[in-house]
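Bug report (template v2)

What were you trying to do?
Predict the complex of my protein with 2-acetamido-2-deoxy-beta-D-glucopyranose.

What happened?
Run completed; filing so the output is reviewed.

Input:
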Amino acid sequence: MKSPLLNKLSKNFRSRPPFNWLLFCLVSVLVVISLLGSSSSAFKSVTSSVKTDTYTNYRKLKEQARSDYLELKTLSVGENQLKDVGVCAKERENYVPCYNASANILAGLKDGEELDRHCELSREHQYCLIRPPKDYKIPLSWPAGRDVIWSGNVKLTKDQFLSSGSIMKRLMLLEENQIAFHSQDGMIVDDVKDYSHQIAEMIGFGSDTEFLQAGVRTVLDIGCGFGSFSAHLLSLNLMALCVAAYGSSGSQVQVALERGLPAVIGNFISTQLPFPSLAYDMIHCAQCGIIWDSKDGLFLIEIDRVLKPGGYFVLTSPTTRRQGSSTSAKKGSMSSPLEEFTKKLCWSLLEQQEETFIWQKTVDSQCYTSGKQGTIPICKGQDMQLYYQPLAHCISGTGSDRWVPIHSRSDSMNSTELKDSEFWKSAVRNYWSLLSPSIFSDHPKRPGDDDPLPPYNIVRSVLDMNAHYGGLNAALLEARKSVWVMNVVPLGVHNTLPLILDRGFVGVLHNWCEAFPTYPRTYDLLHGNGLLSHLDSQGCSIVEVLFEMDRILRPEGWIILSDKLGPIEKVRTVATQMRWEARVIDLQDGSDQRLLVCQKSFVRK
Ligand SMILES: *[C@@H]1O[C@H](CO)[C@@H](O)[C@H](O)[C@H]1NC(C)=O
Ligand SMILES: *[C@@H]1O[C@H](CO)[C@@H](O)[C@H](O)[C@H]1NC(C)=O
């Protein structure tokens, strides 16, 4: 039973407002309208905010807030005279977000962890365009650009390439404003060839041309110097990815990428690499700076996680020689910690020559539990969608259906993958024809340069921001484009990264609400199929991702986004403000899917 008071209240509540109150409202509205006067755009914004009130569903509200934000950005600089976004300060020329060591130290990180990636500690976001260095020049096209780069394009001190004694690093000569990775007499190239040949022989092959037949397709090169070993492996049709720590004053990753070689910033001081387990056929470290027998073998366990069964770990280091030599004299004794760890990991030492050691990971998943090998437990639980997880003192991958020895895998495609591949073949044909300034009516020239000569579409390094099964990568290779593709599987979608890696491609898991671990100006083409819709579903700021795309794309580089009309139109507006040339292309198939093709201009100020 309701109380009389409550009855009275609810009756009042339900009863209509008195007439004079309605009249008051009407008059007020008229007054507001007349105050707004002729400003029809302001009136429009009033009505649209009224419209948002009808959204009751939280998710829709969130989406609306985001698109309002996008529109707000547009409005704030004047709808009619779209004002360009400003250029960042010169200090940001080589800016990589998430690697601010001083902020990390302030937050209490130490023991090397301050050098790790910590996006949560560098949240501030500046809406400005990273400018290229003063002497920046468009890189030479592949393969010339592999051997010669513009010195003004990368941050390196003279000391950096003269001081290092490592075979991977001493391969540089300076010629005027260029850095060369070869010498006239071919001696430098020979050094790397000899080294690669030596590794092949140590494994038991006649020559390094046999790597492929023996199942070595993908190589992870930790601390890759300037990428010369990777470059050589690529020439043998292997896929070699360089991974090295962030360096605030010059970096191996930046130089490797500038040469058009696959590379990404990464380390595993405290967190795992952004790869699933059983990812690579070979892992290589030549003086890569890791103290392998520290932390109770934790770094070796991470190598074991990422290595495929039967895969090889190649370690070249003067300190290993010291560690190893005491034991090689007394075979069977367990005096070297490194030897002890590798035994526990079921690795067998194939060969040791001078400073180079080669181990092979077991093909027997039972080996770890057979008892006689020791004490490293098997990891519990799935490792499907792991991302920057802490290093774990346990063995991964033994229960996986991807536990297939590298020399006995098969490369068959099922029907889903075949259909996917047909789609991408035709997509690549279309895309390639679009990559020409002629699709924009008024293409800006490079400052101070003559008209660029054809081909305009100098594309070597491709970032597929939502790679699905790696179909774009496969189609580009099939069309014999001389590109390499970094396949990104975004967090929150079905994790296809293991499948991509098993096709012999490279890729990483990545959360697009955060910055991508690379230096500015390192990709020639960014591609995103369904990326914008994905970002919306994740609640990421699309504007922030667009600024991030601008950061990592080289001047005059290309962007191809394929998505629904709504998000495409919104991005086109922002793209124009970011001084990208932009064109929306209707696929003429009756769907609401559109292509947005953009080219980043060469912005100086
Ligand atoms: C790095 O962090 C420090 C301390 O929080 C801050 O003062 C500095 O501006 C940051 N640097 C960059 C490049 O964001
Ligand atoms: C084909 O393979 C993919 C990836 O392994 C899988 O998701 C899909 O279900 C498979 N399709 C068929 C028809 O087996």
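What did the reviewer find?
The mean pLDDT is 79. The longest strand covers residues 553-564.
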